[in-house]
Amino acid sequence: MQERVRLSDAQINRDLLRSIFETPKWYWFLVAFLGLVVLAGFTAAGYMFNQGLGVTGLNRPVMWGFFITNFVFWIGISHAGVMLSAILRLVQAEWRRPATRAAEVLTVFSLMTAMMMPLIHAGRPWRVMYWVFPYDFARGVYPNVRSALVWDPAAVFTYLTSSILFVFIALVPDIAVLRDRTTGWRHVMYSVLSLGWRGSVRQWKLQLIAGILLSAIILPIFVSVHSIVSWDFGTAMSVEGWHSTVFAPYFVIGAVHSGVSAVVTVMIALRWVFKWENYIRMEHLDALAKLLIVVATGWFYFFILEFIFGLYSLEGPEVALREMQVFQMPWTALFITFLLCAYFIPVPMWLIPKVRRSIPLMIFTTILVNIGMWLERFIIIVPGLARKQVFTFTWGGYTPSAVEIVIVIATFALVSMLVLLFAKVFPLIPIGDAKEGMILYDEIKIGKVMVPAVMREE
Amino acid sequence: MVNERVNHKWGMVVDIDRCTGCQACVVACQAENNIPLNTEAIFRQRRAIEWIHVERYWEGEFPDVKARFIPILCQHCENAPCEPVCPVYATYHNNQGMNVQVYNRCVGTRYCANNCSYQVRFFNYWEPVWPETLKNQLNPDVTVRSRGIMEKCSFDIQRLRKAEHVIEGQRGERITDENLREGNFLPACVQACPTTTLVFGDFNDPESQVSQMKEEHFVEGGRGYKLLEDLGTEPNVIYLKKVDIHAKTGVETHA
Questions:
Q1: 3-class state of residue B213 by DSSP
Q2: CATH of the domain at B223
Q3: Counted domains in chain B
Q4: What interface predicted TM-score (ipTM) does this complex get?
Q5: Lower Cβ count inside 10 Å, N or C end of chain A?
Q6: Could you list the residue range(s) of the whole structural domain that residue B218 is in?
Q7: Which one, of B214, B209, B239, B210, lies nearest residue B227 by Cα?
Q8: How many CB pairs under 8 A join A and B?
Q9: Which helix (H) or strand (E) holds B42?
Q10: Do the Cβ atoms of B107 and A127 come within 8 Å?
Q11: Is residue B120 part of a domain?
Q12: Looking at CA atoms only, how far is residue B170 from chain A in angstroms?
């Protein structure tokens, strides 16, 4: 079922560039509000640098808490970009067109935000370059490559670089459109960024090849990033509930689950904010929700596996850990919320076609998924540390402090603000792609009815 | 004259049968190693720093419950889980069987503390402060750690280095139990222990008390065991089981 409207090129330009040339009043209010929240987050971080990590709720058994949870969460969100963009580009899924750029941009900004988390949570954040950069800085000590923590920044920064390239390559034709419609300093900026794009056949060909090549190259990076993040936990032999061999695929598919949900949330928000009803259509939400049913169920299978693998050992601390996760307050409440939010409410709802085509219900379910997935990481990280080994006298708990809560909220504001600001400078739906979709789209007559059809792209 | 560097393998034997839980080792360690004051507030935050701490645990099922004390310190594992996870080599194994912490390298990721099975790594959540009256008490041989870094038991490496310098370097003798004791080179906790629960020495020296205790007790059916031995961390600290006198004599404790 395709329910598209045939639009002229001029109409597409007008619609998709509206976010750049027209600024509604609420826009700057919203940006300013988000900016204030971000500022509060930076203030909290500055206070934390000044006073020491004592201002957090971390303590002796639980040395990692909200920050690492948030790190894993944002890395997870970042997996949406490649999942949607690269995979769907390679399999030539027609409905990907309006979603790709939003997904890629979300990837870039959430990766930046994610990487800030482990850096500010270090005890001496001004020294993290000794860990992040694989260089000895005249100390005679290279980073320890046996540590998963060294692989983290390597993987994340590789993914960030390739995602930025990916976004940029797709952006070049759109920037050229903007260059031709602006004056003054904007014109200069777009001229430089458009890299002399004239829209010749050779340029289009190169751009297409570059996009496909990058899609293929990014895929292994995409799998490796969250695998490596999961090894932060998987290689920690002393922590029950962390040292699970199933963590890498479990985290990757969980990341796709939360990432694709976040893209749906962002797409609905954009559709509403910029009035892109003709571009982000119900068929897109429908297709994404179907994809989500598959991904969520795959993720749920891994969740059950991980839980049962743990219990199967029947080790004392492992059983104590699961007991804490499931039967002790407040973890019981968190655990139930997590299960309901991440699987048991959204997936049955998505099975109903009406829900898949309803804007409020889709935004509700996808936000639920991300609440659930945030809790999932929290439930893995903290109880694991609080019930580490058989020494009951080292068992503990964790309560986040106001500083941590403010910083975590600020990361959400930061990503939203960056996406909004990006929408002010570059179109969030690829114009070239949208036009291509219009050209390839056709209606063929079968019997008495006109059926929408799409020519294959080659 | 000892010309070549002698190969030591420092280790400890903890005889729980002798431990009364008096906490003298804790206080001695606190004073020797410039550990910040553990106030009530710090304890409530669960951020107390005690390189050696005496833990109480319960043994047996009700009503046959017995309170036990166990002094816990860094086990200086041969196969330490904390070492490979540090991204900046702030903790590594030296050639004397010790797990050492390089404060200057530490960036404070706290990964090592997460991965330590014995929970004996301590993070400086706050900048350490001492009251004015205690400033002169600080030990000049030990670094005062700033906030944001990890610290743990060092087997009082400053004393061992001095022992090597004085005994091996200047006098040209081998380090033995006797000259360690005479020169005050034993770790502070060992010196302070009134019941000789803690015994420190060189496992590479067959004459040392720890080697002999290991030979006697760390055998099949002996009292010796290592903490969480099944994890394969190979600690350099050996514990000796409590002797249950009532179990031995068969006298019923509950009349």
A1: helix
A2: 3.30.70.20
A3: 1
A4: 0.87
A5: C
A6: 10-249
A7: B239
A8: 135
A9: helix B40-44
A10: yes
A11: yes
A12: 31
